[in-house]
Amino acid sequence: MRLTAELSPHPLRRRLIALLVSVAALAALLVSYLPTWANAAAGRSPVGVLEVASFTNGRATVGGWTIDPDVKTPIGVRIYIDGKPQLWRADKIRPDVAKAALGYGAAHGFSGTFGLANGSHRICAVGMNVGIGGTNTTLGCKTVLAQNNPVGAMTSVTRTPAGLRVAGWALDPNASAPVTVDVTVDAVHTRVVASATPKASLSAVPASYNAVYGVNHTFVLNLKAATGSHKVCLTAFNVGIGANSQIICRTYVVSPNPFGYLDTATRTSATTITVTGWVIDPDTVKATSVNILIDGKLTNNIPANTTRTDVAAVYPAYGPGHGYAKVISANGNPHTVCGSAVNVGVGAAVALACKSLPSTGDTVPAPVTGLQAGAASGSITLTWAAARSVTTPVTAYQITVKETGNIIKVSGSTLKAAITGLTNGKRYTFTIVGLNTMGTGSPATVTGVPVAIPPQTSPAPVSTSHYIRNITGNAVSDSALMRKMGAADAGYNPSGHRYLVLLQIGGQDQSRGGVLLSATSRYVSNAAVVTAMKAYLDGYVTKQKLNAPMLLAIGTNNDVDVSSVAGAMWARGVVNPVVSYAARYANIRVGGANDIEPGFSATAGETKSWLSGYVGATSAQFVFNGSADGCSTGAAASRCNNGWTMADLQWLSGGAAPTRSLSLPQIYNSAMPLQWKFISLTGVSARKPKLYFGGPLTEYTACQQAGSCGSITNVDAWNKLWAAISSATATRQADMPHGTDLRIN
Predict the structure, then answer these.
(1) Number of domains in the chain
(2) Distance CA 263, CA 392 (A)
(3) I need a labelling partner for 499 at 20 to 30 A (CA). Which of 45, 98, 237, 704 fits?
(4) What is the pLDDT of residues 640-662, one digit of tens each?
(5) SS3 of 414, please?
(6) Strand 107-114's sheet: what is its strand order?
(7) Residues 619, 577: contact at Cβ < 8 Å?
(8) Which domain holds residue 46?
(9) What secondary structure does DSSP assign to 369-385, as a single string?
């Protein structure tokens, strides 16, 4: 775009700066990787570093690298463990070392594992000198704490009719074979080998261990224990280096009283409540019962004899038949519902949980909010925000089509519905209500929604696009600014049309992960751009008309950092996060854009690499909004400025990704439409798809603001581009939906 080019840095100066930065970066990498290399070359002593010395899963791991400048072959390295040496050879392949120390090759790494006794150990590495001069070099020392004792856990202790069921796991870090554990209840010892699977024992070995040792290190014991308090301890016996470990000791109480829970108490109608839960009495494996109290008064005695596999998984000694579920009568007043487990044999009844229920008057869903309609051929998609329901969740939404009388019902967890079988060109009215077990909520209505948007064969309503120069990176001020801008832009766009808004940010500053705002030297991060784009969408939807979908194109250019890496970064760092955010809005789409011009600093090859990187890193649409500097207005397959060709521009503006690209060329005068007609014909003559032109991009308003450029109006540009592509059968298209004009901020 001309306004961008006027104030952009000079291309030669930019490339010189980039070269100096690259040289400095390479020097910094070598210095950081081989900090003593220069001194070693003079003294002929080895260089290197002890990178790691650690102890994990019963083994010490040591690793690093070393080179003697006198030779390119591997040298010896002496590993000292508490002062005792071992001679290793530094011949492991290290491509990173080879890259930093050019000419010496990659075989200069050392690594190994070994056992260590419990306690703290000092580990050092010394590179052994080779050749004339120099001395052995200490590569570093590290302190390692070794722990070889068994580890484990007592994962559950539950009651059984005879006492306690203890489950857990244990293993020795020095051995993959099962270990023996000792479980004591008070002074009574019971030994068992921890060799079962987690499924059998209901105990899970942590992932950090099972990846190395497997999962067969668990145990389950059913132990006798009388009524009262008991101290339960778990000890694991050591294998190899180390000592036995007492894993845990904890006190548990064996009570004769029943236990259980009131899981739910919910309204199922204006006059009924459903209660669910479970109860077990330790004196019997048979089903017992629960008393239900409403507002402190006994109303029901319910047998606890339904299947609850989840309860049986925790208390397998009692079997699955200890659940209860019952519908009981209750009026619409507020209530407190409590459960009480009925005792069998020795012991006493036990109070369970209580649940509070408000009155039924608060439970009918409120009207849905944010109801929107998006049109397509033969269908309309409705979206909405969840209906508020104070106490009872929404179970379904019911949609009525006024004109047909059809009723569509969808799940209460769904906030979107596609209404199909509609007639194109006809307008429809939709009413939606939320439903729950208490009844039907109040309706929300959207009226006069037309099905499908007709083809645009005359000048499209002109949307406002922007050169973004006024954001600063301050999230608060940028968000306020962009929300206001979005709302203002949407307010100008009437219903019944499609719209494209281009927000032209500027050239990418890849090294800093951000953008230089167009025609300025102000830098903002990619994260700040994403924040601004989200705020723009938030503002836009507040004033967006029905049946007026919008494509937001987030634009950079080919005038600063242009490469496949930069293209991928524009996709992943800017476009994709905004695409994900926009998914909440039914009539909004987001894509990436690039102001590609032969007059900018990047070559055609560099620019193609950028587009390949972008397309490979996102599924979002690509909007080409560039120019055809120096291209012919009367012949296809011709050359353009600065070594570019029409074939280059055809590939960039649609040929690279025909199904995902939309061409929005700059049409500032009468010659530009003819250039694009012949660029499209260039592709057709090579048996490639013709370009799809979304419409013209103009900068009529921006030029008036700047007073330093010229552009025809967007309506004039639309007519000229439409006439140019319609003049040849090979480039003719059924409609051209967009027209947008740039302004500064």
Answers:
(1) 5
(2) 16
(3) 704
(4) 999 999 999 999 999 999 999 99
(5) coil
(6) 47-56, 59-67, 107-114, 92-93
(7) no
(8) 36-146
(9) EEEEEEEETTEEEEEEE
